[in-house]
Structure formats: C-alpha cells, structure tokens
Amino acid sequence: MAQPSTARVRTHELGQVVVLKFAGRLGGVAEDLDKAIQLALGDGPRGVVCDLLGVFEGAQPAALESVATAGRHVRDWSGIPVAVVCPEPRLREELHVHPLARHLIVTATIQSAVSAVLATPIPVVEWLRLAPHPTAPRASRDFVARTLLDWGLGRLIPSASLVVSELVTNSTIHAGTDIELSVAWNLGALRLAVRDNSPDLPRQRYSQFDQNGRGMSVVAAVSRSFGVLPTADGGKVVWAVLNAARPMS
User: Fold this and answer.
1) Element (H or E) spanning 3, and its range?
2) Tens digits of per-residue pLDDT, 148-159?
C-alpha cells in the first residue's frame, strides 16, 4: 500500500523575492504549490522562487507535470517571474521542454533562482487607491487613460478603460471595501489589477449581463487572459492582461 504523502509550505522573503519552501513528496505538493504561488502573486512581489529541493526524490511523470503547469501563472499573470529549484539535471531538462514549464525559470540552486528572477525586466507600474464610491469607475478610467498616454499606449485606452471600469464597478458593488488599482506594462503586456479586502471571489460570467454592468463577459472578450488571485490577508485581486506591444519609435 502506498504511504500517504504530505506537503508543507514555509514562506520567507529575500528582498522583494518570495521564497516558498516545500517539504514532503512531490506527488503531494501539486495543490499546495498552486495555492502558494497564487497567494504570493497576489501581493505583487518582484518574483517567486519555489524551493523544491526536498521533494523531487522518486518523482513520477504525473507529479512533474503538476510542477510544469505552474508556468500558466507566468503566461497569464504577466510581469512577475516564477522560478523552480530542481536539483536533478534530467528533471530540469524535462521541465525546459514542457510547453507550460518554459514560462518558468528552472535552476539547480536557490541562489541562481533568485539571481535569475532579479535579472528579469521590471514592469512599469502605476498605483491608485480608491474608495468604494459610485465615482470610482470614472476615476479609474481617467487614471488609466492618463497612464497609457504617458506610456505612449493611447491606442489601448478604449479597451483598457472598459476593462478597468468593469473590474472597479464589480469591486465597488460587491466588495464594498477600499480598492487598490494597479496598471503594469511589461514585455508587450498590459496588466490591470484591482485588489479589495473582500474574501468573496467573484463568479466568472461570460455571457450574462445584469443591471450593474456588462459583467466579466466584457473582460473576457477584450483581454488575452484574466482571473482572480486570493491574497494572504483574506482579500482578492481580480486581474486582466491585454496585448500591448511597445510603440514604434
């Protein structure tokens, strides 16, 4: 009979890089790995390093697959690198050729992982704090428009304003807490993120419209990806990423 596997996660920071140290067997890490990465990303660190030095022994293909799929967070949540520390060369090679794992930084040591994370481009980010007031959506649209004009991305103002208005409206109506809006531009991607203090994750609606707005169907139609991240303090970050190539000089 197979022995039950457990996984524990300890978190610490090296500068602005969050290091997630896992203990247990790799087969038991998958769910904990995904949750821990999401919580770390929700706080907007410089990067995330997953220390799996103690869990790769006897790894099976299915378990390795679960590690590789962590790359979807980098693919979708643009601008915050995620590194995986893997001690075995063979497993590192397998991760390097995996379609999703290619979005990850895969190294043999924690030191090299942190160095690689810090060597990645730093997104340009602007922040705005808002109260849960009916004027918040308009303020968010004005803020996004000014920011994109400053970055030479004026052509994105209509779609970005539409997306941020929906995200802020949703938070204002359903969360009712202070809102933190961030606009980040990195590597041809524009990320709009709205953070509030409500523990209730919004329902993803792709085709239903209600009296309060056009819903997440608008966000889905305009964005290349979007989603929700939980935060360590019990809140959430609702985000959307739009294609935003660098303007021609």
Assistant:
1) none
2) 999 999 999 999
